[in-house]
Specification:
This protein is an alpha+beta fold. Helices cover 25% and strands 31% of the residues. The protein contains six helices and eleven strands. The strands form three sheets. A six-stranded antiparallel beta sheet has the order 4-5-6-9-8-7. Strands 3-10-11 form a three-stranded mixed beta sheet, with no helix packed on it. Helix 1 packs across helix 3 and helix 2 packs across helix 3. The longest helix has 16 residues. The chain is elongated, with a radius of gyration of 22 Å.
């Protein structure tokens, strides 16, 4: 690596450094590669370590970098698009679905989910746990709640537990005619169990996407998916052509 000195610029030095670092990430580094330590980077760009930290923190906020415990600062993969305005309605587990079914249990859902499903207090439902992985790292975790009335022909003999049981529940769900779905998105903080699954610290920012699936004039399933806020972006392609990208210098179209 050569040495690059920053010239005097009207914008804050850390912001100019952020731009220079972003260009270096595109041209010199690959996804998952570990960056040199702060001392070497500060020397390369001729800045104080405090200025360097500000630039690195900004790039982390934008999703360009990730700070991984026990590893260091690495180049982040491209953000995963979370389509919240799509008009294409498909069942979970349908062809092309990239989520990985991990487990299935029968238990009472949270009160907020039970209210959406209109199930009785304490009534157990099938709870399918799934994960979404890209470039070898987890980016989202999902809990999919499906009442027994939505999959009445499910056989416990064919798929007694685990991932096989989860896939069997999803197959039975796809026998229904999907009449529509809607989504709600909110910012949140990672709970302890989500944080562990997503390789983040508890309290890390996340996007929580709640999806309702409709069939036969009622809600037959509810998905609560938790996405890492540093690896995802929202897309509204079918409802106005708007995309929210990780780069603040790009404008929504």
């Amino acid at each position: 690596m050569g040495t690059t000195q920053l010239e005097s610029v009207p914008e804050p030095k850390y912001w100019h450094l952020r731009t220079v670092l972003s260009e270096a990430l595109d041209s010199e580094f690959t996804v998952g590669e570990i960056l040199p330590n702060e001392r070497d980077l500060a020397a390369r760009f001729g800045v104080a370590r405090a200025t360097l930290r500000q630039a690195l923190e900004q790039l982390e906020l934008e999703g360009r970098l990730q700070r991984r415990r026990g590893v260091g600062t690495t180049v982040a993969p491209p953000r995963v698009g979370v389509a919240v305005g799509t008009e294409q309605h498909v069942w979970p587990g349908a062809a092309g679905d990239t989520w990985h079914a991990a487990d299935c249990a029968v238990s009472a859902p949270p009160a907020s989910v039970a209210s959406i499903l209109e199930t009785a207090d304490g009534e157990a439902v099938h709870t399918v746990r799934r994960s979404l992985v890209t470039h070898g790292q987890p980016v989202a975790a999902e809990l999919l709640y499906i009442p027994e009335s939505s999959v009445p022909d499910l056989s416990a003999i064919d798929a007694p537990s685990g991932a096989a049981r989860a896939r069997a529940v999803l197959r039975e769900l796809q026998r229904l005619d999907l009449e529509g779905q809607d989504r709600a998105v909110e910012l949140g903080s990672a709970r302890a169990d989500d944080a562990k699954e997503l390789d983040r610290l508890p309290g890390a920012p996340v996007l929580v996407v709640t999806t309702r699936f409709f069939s036969e004039g009622r809600t037959v399933a509810v998905s609560v998916a938790t996405y890492r806020a540093d690896t995802c972006r929202l897309t509204f392609g079918d409802s106005g052509g708007v995309e929210i990208h990780h780069d603040p210098e790009r404008r929504a179209s």
